[in-house]
Amino acid sequence: MERNDLCWCGSGRKYKKCHMPIEEKILLHAERGEIVPTRDLLKTPVQIEMIKKSAALNTAVLDEVAKHIHIGMSTAEIDNIVHNFTVEHGGIPAPLDYQGFPKSVCTSLNNEVCHGIPDENIILQEGDIINVDVSTILEGYFSDASRMFKMGKISRRAERLIRVTEECVERGLAAAKPWGHLGDIADAINSHAKANGYSVVEEIGGHGIGLAFHEEPFVSYVTPKGSEMLLVPGMMFTIEPMINEGSPDFFVDEDNGWTVYTIDDGLSAQIEYMVLVKEDGIEVLTK
Ligand code: MF3
Ligand code: CO
């Protein structure tokens, strides 16, 4: 690209007034040995607009779940709500057939860390905590977010785990800044979880998103401050730590190949937001 060419991002501005200063800054960080994003991880204005529409539908699906979720229903009914609402609004549930996943949403209860498969025999009981993880494709653009739901009166330990998980995500969001690093987010999350006696799952993390379900970078929530990929305006990724009451270790269901359980049977909670890095801060696209 020459200085006076129109910028590759389609903004209509000259490269020198658009991505050239950003890319020069990236280069300086790269020369210091930092991990930096490639150009394809920086979303263009048109892509951002389209992904925001997908994220808005994803939020509406979660709102629809929130409206109808209740004790006595099966997780298969949650799957029906997600599937029907998404399709009625022109979307496609991203989990369906994703690497063989059989349903349209992940529903993970109590000691399930993530990737729970909706099932007509899993009935929501008083005291359950459940993560509903919704991911949507709209006009080819991907979005992803999850919330925790409490079924009736839950135990104090479950209540505390969800509260601290919310706090962890808020601290992670507050630590996310353009020209900072992914490790800043991880450190904010991990240190708050640890301070409360909890652990953060290590091998499963967040991911870039927008043009595909799972893009680079892998987003760890246990790496040190200042480490991992540089945060550059235009990057989009999820913040979705899994916080365990006890050990961070887990195992995967041998029969269905998906559901992830805590190794010690302790509770696990997760909240997921999708964020966009901007020049003046970050924007949460799924709140
Ligand atoms: N939504 C999950 C995530 O945040 C991915 C689930 S993959 C599926 O990365 F196949 F289980 F849906
Ligand atoms: Co995700």
Can you walk me through this structure?
It is a single chain. By secondary structure, this protein is an alpha+beta fold. The protein contains 5 helices and 15 strands. A hairpin with a 7-residue loop joins strand 11 and strand 12. The radius of gyration is 19 Å and the shape is globular. The mean pLDDT is 98. The chain binds 2-amino-4-trifluoromethylsulfanyl-butyric acid and cobalt (II) ion. 2-amino-4-trifluoromethylsulfanyl-butyric acid binds at residues 95, 98-99, 101, 106, 115, 133, 135, 144, 207, 238, 240, 272.
In short:
The protein is α+β, with helices and mostly antiparallel strands. It has helices at 19-31, 45-68, 75-88, 156-175, 182-195, and strands at 91-93, 106-109, 112-114, 129-138, 141-150, 199-200, 206-208, 215-219, 236-239, 242-244, 250-252, 260-262, 268-270, 273-278, 281-284. It is built from 5 helices and 15 strands.
